[in-house]
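Design a sequence for this backbone.
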């Protein structure tokens, strides 16, 4: 149950985080926030569709005793870097870090 809730929590946090830039004045309207969110989600779906078979193949071939702790560590590291270094919702770095964070989450879920 907690694994199924994690993508929803990440998605909700991302939406609220992007929407907070409307209040600060960085974005002009909630439509801009929705467009950025839609772009990030669409990019994530395409990226994960392309990398999904590679992750599945890796899950079959790699040792779970190494990959499960490594995937937890990778996701934690990427999430911390998101909180420390990402400060604009429309930068290419935001998309890159979110893609890596989601990929680490998928790796973790597939390996478990």
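Sequence:
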């Amino acid at each position: 149950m907690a694994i199924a809730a994690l993508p929803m929590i990440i998605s909700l946090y991302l939406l609220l985080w992007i929407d907070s830039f409307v209040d600060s004045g960085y974005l002009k309207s909630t439509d801009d926030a929705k467009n950025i969110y839609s772009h990030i989600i669409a990019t994530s779906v395409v990226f994960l569709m392309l990398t999904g078979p590679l992750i599945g193949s890796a899950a079959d071939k790699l040792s779970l005793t190494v990959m499960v702790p490594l995937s937890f560590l990778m996701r934690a590291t990427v999430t911390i870097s998101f909180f420390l270094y990402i400060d604009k919702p429309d930068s290419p770095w935001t998309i890159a870090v979110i893609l890596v964070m989601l990929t680490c989450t998928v790796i973790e879920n597939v390996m478990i």
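Helices lie at 2-24, 30-61, 64-85, 92-111.
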